[in-house]
Fold each of these.
Amino acid sequence: MPSKRCHLVGLLISVTALANVALAAEQVAVLTRAEGDVKLFVDPATVTADQKALPHATFEGATYSVRTAKVGDRLQRNNVIQTGPAGKARFIYRNGDQITVAPGSAFRVTWDAKKEDKPILELFSGKIRTLIQSEGPRTGLKVTTKSAVMGVRGTDFHVAAWSKTGGSELSVLRGKVQVARLPDQAQPAPKAVEVSSGFSAVIKAPPSGPSQTTAKAAPERIDVQQTPREQLVGIQRASKIDKGTGPVEAAIATLEKQAVTTVMQDIKKEDPGLYKTLVAQGAAPTDTDDIQAKTVKKLFLAAPSRKPGVAKPQESDLDSGDIYDKYQWDGAD
């Protein structure tokens, strides 16, 4: 007959297993909106029998099964999402956290399945806008590019990564984010910089090839400046995805409703002024696109223009479809 100790050990193992399953479920997001070309790269070791015949591709040194992503797909651990030149995607987690992916982007979310570690979002190229609940399951999320690492608590932020040079930029739209340059053998340990709402930090590409000097150089300062109007217009354009005209599944509608509830709760706590604007005349927003647009508009009114002497973007530009191309910022300058 098994001893009481054996029963206790078995119970602890079962509880731990269930906790890991719950953790994994909490870290899995669902694709709720998609436009244009959106590809899902899946680790072949995890594909189902009916996915074995999918095309394969190598990305960042690993081989994946690749197919067109569709609404309802789950963003599992180590999956890669890639959007085409006109592609966009939005993922929402069970608690309402969300990631919006701009055109021409590629990213991966990973975590240690055996530990309660916070996930890591690796942005290889392109742009994402992320809304994270304060004190939620992704507080402590790390976002990495080829040149930077960011520590996230609860915030609305946008990250751009340029694959040609490895440079990147963080723009905070609400809350605060810690950002540091990735460690480099030629420099001392990087010091994190806190970026506040309405400001952006530029992280230049790490030097290519081995350092030519043996002495460690002083780390290059991360430049933090107020986000200009042109850039805010570009961010707003990239993060807006229409619902479409077709029917919405109940599960997707529930996730989108939860996303609104989550971000409104955070805004009420962190920015009462913005919250008052959002619920003015009893018309509370029912779509996170509306919340994101009003968040950007508040910053826009106080933001400088990037190019003196050129016509300054106006508030109405945030609502215009054609004007976005004029002000779209791609990090080239």
Amino acid sequence: MKIQALCDKIQLQPEIKSSVIEFANDFDFSSVDKQLKLFRNYEKMSEALSELQIVLGKDTDNIKILACMLKASADEYEIYMEKDISDDIYFSTMKCYTRFIDETFKMTGKLYFDRYWWTIRQAGFHLFRIGELEYEMKHIDGDIVIGIHIPSDADFSPSAIDASLARARQFFATNYPELLNAEYRCHSWLLDSQLKGMLNESSNILNFQNRFEIFDEGEVGTDFIEWLYNTKSTDYAVLPENTSLQRKMKEHLLSGGVIRNAYGRIKE
């Protein structure tokens, strides 16, 4: 697949797409072929990203690295076809680029790609969006577990989550039968037990949380602020109070409380 075709299919923002295509038309991608292919090696993908940044040099607007991510993702389409993975899963997975740029725009007012540290997973054939959730083949202590991620635009209703999990189990059974008994895990602030005191029992978040056995309370984090309040500011006093959860969370933070990114495994 060509970069232009991928940009069109995922409806990349026109201003960003124009800059990406302009760069791609003049760039020799063979100069970074080694790094882009190394994205497919889970243990080496972060090292490959660092090497890529060195090769690209100054990239103040991150268009260069976005173009390279899109190139790796476009080339990956051939692997999807070889494994008979549907276009629905492929394009749903690759729409992460458009979604991430939209998310950054909402917070900063600037169209900007800043999630390249994460998209090595999509560009390296390690993460797939299947229905409402994303599933990453994570290498942990010599084993592979299926890491569950929640995109910001996901339908978080119980029925939608049920459907996604069912499709994912079928996907991995078909394409990676060796992972048939792999654990499905999630590492997220959404699994913090303190949320039970901030939400009613019928909430989608608690329904999701109750699917997991928490095996580690996790580390204190502030990344949840980005998703709950649509800002990266840690000035708790100015956080919005538009929803009940925002209000209760703000009160919790202002009283000295913290939120942890807990680790859970799906209950069988």
